Amino acid sequence: MQVVVAGAGISGLTAALALARQGHRVRVVDRDGTARPAGVDAAAAWERRGVAQFHQPHAFLARLHAELDAGLPDVLASLVAHGAAPVDLPDGLRALWCRRSTLEWVLQAAAEAEPGVELRHAAVADVETAGGAVAGVRLVDGAVLPADLVVDATGRRGRLSRRWSGDTVDVPTDEVYVSRRYRLLPGAEFGPVERGVVSVAEGDGYAVLVFPHDAGTFSVCLTRLPDDEDLACLRELSSFEAATRAVPLAALWTDPARAVPISPVMVMGGLRSTFRLLDDAAPLGLHPLADAVSTSNPHFGRGSALAVAHALRLAGAVADAPGDARSWRAQVDDWVRGELHDWFEDGCRTDAARAAAWRAARDGAGWGGGPPAFGPGTPLPGWLVMAAAGADPVVGRAVLRHAHLVDPPSALTAVHPRVAAMLAEGWRPGRPPADQAGEGRPAGPPQAPPRQVLLAALAAA
């Protein structure tokens, strides 16, 4: 069978490798003509046109590790051999500390070495169809590549499949990200890490996240509302540095005795959560993957794991029914409409609840006098439950399994009563756990200072 994959990102290369190993001829077409750098360290400066988030911090979850271990174990081994750090978690789970550039470098190296994969630098113009099925793709130069299966891995724009989009959801994530990358000094070690991949300090109207990577690097990311003008200055170097000094978690990681910055301050905004399904007129054999179907808030770090899972589900469907394009569509659609949609809705609910809480804090109606009241049976906002992970071991385990896409989103509701009890006892987001026996309930100063304290630090800068 002939396959054309449009897009040489995470999902496209994963699909290409998995399909080629079934004996299919796979052509990967990508408009980015930049050659793969000589090594993973050089890849840190790789300019991947069309991948706006390429140099932003990423979390590589236990779900990603499990999918690669099952579907492309040699790629996982190569990642580790090239410096990605496996992270052991409770319940036998394992995640990765890694830069996105390292993951893409390893995937592309594997694709270049795979006998059944051909990489071609070109731009795809459209899908060719015949008799209700794909027949190939037409390049912008007029050349036609015949194909029985066309994979649209062109990212959030989904250029090849968009004209067959049916029901579509498109909502703002209501977050702007400002980040900077650092490198540990010789002999220095990473600071504290929560949830196995990232440390989080939830503030009233903002959050701070620290992402460990490979090669002794890490990123500090500050997130805010798009319409929070008081925090818009975080894009400026002096304000970003003032904020990292003011937030204890960030100050610990970026202590000049521990690390030095190796990037400018990077801003990512205008983010939206989207979900698109193919309509009934879509030709059989056309399969959009990952961001071409669903995008979500990078705050959760789910994109890469779900991209790999999506690509491997397609490859599995093809392996189950070679030559039966209708079966491929049915199998992949079941997963898309099921698990992928469940995670999309979970992210949207969490985004909306966090944005409402942050706007209340910005407008002076925050939690200074205590948290909102939640009656018996009232669902708690997802962000609030996740913020409680470091303050209670039972909540922490449930949140870890949720954060790493191990349990379904609905499983997190089991600890809602426990978090409600913590709120009633005086717990607030952003506080560290107490250094005492018993339930491990929090005490001490917040990890993220009150909003007015942060604003004062920014004004002084």
TrEMBL record:
Superkingdom: Bacteria
Family annotation (InterPro entries): FAD/NAD-bd_sf (IPR036188)
Region (Disordered): 427-452
Pfam families per record: FAD_oxidored (PF12831)
Annotated signal sequence range: none
Name listed for the protein in its UniProt record: Dehydrogenase (Flavoprotein)
Organism from which the protein derives: Geodermatophilus aquaeductus
